Amino acid sequence: MELFLHCHERVDQGVGKGLSRLIDVVDRSGNLVERFEMMCAAIDSDVRSSVILDWIRKVESGEEDHVEVDGNGWVITLSRNDVSFEGLYGQGEGGNVSFDQFCFAVKTFLLFLANSGSDPIKVPLMD
């Protein structure tokens, strides 16, 4: 299945549903891909600066084998093999993705935030 990382402005999802996230993983038809929901929710909630890149670099370089990054709503557990997520307010836990997928998503999201008011970004995501 061909997947895309999609960064975009928030949109109103209708009465009682609130605003959308700024980041999603979608298939070719634009449908959300459920197995990436926790990653996208954690990035949308807790990644607002390049601080996460310091933790990514420590794992990439081998300085750290495993780190837990506490955010406002999520604990993101990074290792060279995978990344998992634990919601601090009952959002659940798991949602494992590869380290490379997470790094790509974070870097793309930070680029999108740095260019506020820019056009949406929709790029292929490795499966």
Layout of helices and strands:
Blueprint: E1 3-7, E2 23-27, H1 37-46, H2 51-61, E3 66-70, E4 74-79, E5 82-87, E6 93-98, H3 99-114, E7 121-125
Antiparallel strand pairs: 1-2, 1-7, 3-4, 4-5, 5-6
Fill in the keyword field for this structure.
single chain; 127 residues; 4-stranded antiparallel beta sheet; 3 helices; 7 strands
Characterise the protein shown here.
By secondary structure, this protein is of the alpha+beta class. The chain has one domain (3-125). It contains three helices and seven strands, in the order ββααββββαβ. Strands 3-4-5-6 form a four-stranded antiparallel beta sheet. The protein has a three-stranded antiparallel beta sheet with strand order 2-1-7. A hairpin with a 3-residue loop joins strand 3 (66-70) and strand 4 (74-79). The chain is globular.
How do you describe this structure in short?
This protein is α+β, with helices and mostly antiparallel strands and 127 residues long. Helices cover 29% and strands 30% of the residues.
